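User: Can you recover a sequence for this backbone? Please restate the input before giving your answer.

Assistant: Of course. Working from this structure:
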């Protein structure tokens, strides 16, 4: 199972595209959406939480620290936090598991499971970079929402698909969401 955690940063469209791609590939997914992310889904895309829940096999409440995903004995393969706010990134880097998202990230790191954080912030402060480095040192993958342009994108979807394709690549999931360098 792949857990998709969505935090309150701009760029929730990446999580929407990722969930749709994983559903199309018939991958088992769980989703947890922070309260600020709910607001951003509505603001940026006009989408409600129920629309997101329908794309996943399992839904987890963001403030439920008793949720199964918050235990090391619960089996999941990977965690993707997309987009990942700097607040969430900081909490993870500093071991502060105060909600279901930061706690499942703590579990992923301590159990040495694949964890991918997709920050969408610019510019970055030194502390942001230091927090990313700390997570990277512990085995996490930092995959900023920084699209390439060598695939000659023709529209916004092409740019979004590039980032989502890179997330799928990091999960070792074959995809053709963007034209690869030849």
């Amino acid at each position: 199972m792949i857990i998709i955690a969505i935090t309150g940063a701009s760029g929730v469209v990446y999580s929407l595209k990722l969930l749709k791609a994983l559903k199309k590939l018939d991958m088992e997914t769980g989703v947890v959406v922070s309260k600020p992310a709910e607001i951003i889904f509505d603001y940026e895309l006009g989408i409600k939480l129920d629309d997101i829940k329908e794309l996943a096999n399992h839904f987890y409440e963001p403030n439920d620290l008793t949720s199964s995903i918050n235990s090391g004995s619960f089996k999941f393969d990977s965690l993707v936090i997309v987009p990942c706010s700097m607040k969430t990134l900081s909490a993870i880097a500093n071991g502060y598991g105060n909600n279901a998202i930061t706690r499942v990230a703590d579990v992923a790191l301590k159990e040495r499971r694949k964890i991918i954080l997709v920050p969408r912030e610019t510019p970055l402060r030194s502390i942001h970079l230091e927090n990313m480095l700390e997570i990277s040192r512990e085995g996490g993958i930092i995959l900023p929402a920084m699209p390439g342009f060598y695939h000659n994108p023709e529209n916004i979807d092409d740019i979004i698909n590039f980032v989502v394709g890179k997330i799928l690549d990091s999960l070792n999931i074959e995809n053709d969401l963007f034209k690869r360098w030849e």
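That completes the design. The chain is about 40% helix and 15% strand.
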